[in-house]
Amino acid sequence: xxxxxxxxxxxxxxxxxxxxxxxxxxxxxxxxxxxxxxxxxxxxxxxxxxxxxxxxxxxxxxxxxxxxxxxxxxxxxxxxxxxxxxxxxxxxxxxxxxxxxxxxxxxxxxxxxxxxxxxxxxxxxxxxxxxxxxxxxxxxxxxxxxxxxxxxxxxxxxxxxxxxxxxxxxxxxxxxxxxxxxxxxxxxxxxxxxxxxxxxxxxxxxxxxxxxxxxxxxxxxxxxxxxxxxxxxxxxxxxxxxxxxxxxxxxxxxxxxxxxxxxxxxxxxxxxxxxxxxxxxxxxxxxxxxxxxxxxxxxxxxxxxxxxxxxxxxxxxxxxxxxxxxxxxxxxxxxxxxxxxxxxxxxxxxxxxxxxxxxxxxxxxxxxxxxxxxxxxxxxxxxxxxxxxxxxxxxxxxxxxxxxxxxxxxxxxxxxxxxxxxxxxxxxxxxxxxxxxxxxxxxxxxxxxxxxxxxxxxxxxxxxxxxxxxxxxxxxxxxxxxxxx
Length: 485
Hints:
The protein is mostly beta strands. The protein contains 5 helices and 28 strands. It has helices at about 165-170, 250-255, 270-275, 390-395, 410-415; strands at about 1-5, 15, 35-40, 45-50, 55-60, 80, 90, 100-105, 110, 120, 135, 140, 185, 215, 225, 295-305, 310-315, 320-325, 335, 350, 355-360, 365, 375, 380, 440-445, 455-460, 465-470, 480-485.
């Protein structure tokens, strides 16, 4: 600091200087608390608590545990994200790979100690439908996926799209299964059988690969109970339960430590549908991995919204959901594992502001309004209703929001956005505004029954039920979807 006395008639100019060192007190910063809002298909959404005095936040990621941020760069995949805000959305992750995250609060030169450590393992929660057949525009089911539907070029349908149509996915499966299904057979202690291509036999053995207790889905990460001919895991009549007693088999299996697991439970609708194979019926599942299965209904854990007397089942004759009286007796196929597509709350979705919304769990981008409708609440206009082939053509030709790869969703993709705690409509209307004018939408999935051969599946969002309808005798709306990445 310099003071100056100006010159006058008696004195020359004079100055005096003093140096003062100002040292800021260190800002004390608490560590943030970090958590996962959602984790899904090659992505995660992370949030953390605000910290007093913090002006920004850093996020550290690695493929191994982060014990100290001083050495984060030496860790496998060690990455620093500077000046990030919560919630933080990260895409481009590898499904099945574990990622560790810690956060710190920052103010000037001060950085807090690290937060609690978060481990996320991204996975695609949806299996494809397994469909390898195609439907003709008006009638018929082709044994293979053909270009039979022609209208200014091929009109893609279910069998043309997704994991089942990707030869790279099929060639790199961890286990085995038809189409893109990827299963591994597990022994009674939960370890993978050394021989995976054996055929089930009630008199077989784990050592020769002819007897297994559970199946792991390598895509979703879920582990499933395998039914037996006799005993507590069989389809004997005494093992069937009404919905009120649905948890009894899970409790017994947890006490048994069945397949080394103590977290068995009754699956949700979307979970149980993941193992449905809609390329076949009676039964609609991969029989080589799920022996002794029956083409009948299995309880789920969910009641039917708006109908207190009924609960949801999955009927494995066709592989679709059904509403059944809670007093009826059905089997339960138990599941274990974390699943991220059950919660349909608004935090799961990213509204993009251009009439589209991204599902941060499945990685799908949806058009918010049905075709023909627009506006913030999708109330302007008139719903476009078309026959099945025309609906798929309209999806193919759409360039909405600048994208040219729109399509009709398949059965399982549509099922993933059903809000089973709501009805009429059974969908999150904050994300998918629906004034009630549109409830029924075509899927891209033809019905594979030998007879009748002129039906495809639609979804009715009154409660979220898949229904077969005549391809030309029924007109339904379209809700378009595309892969976000």
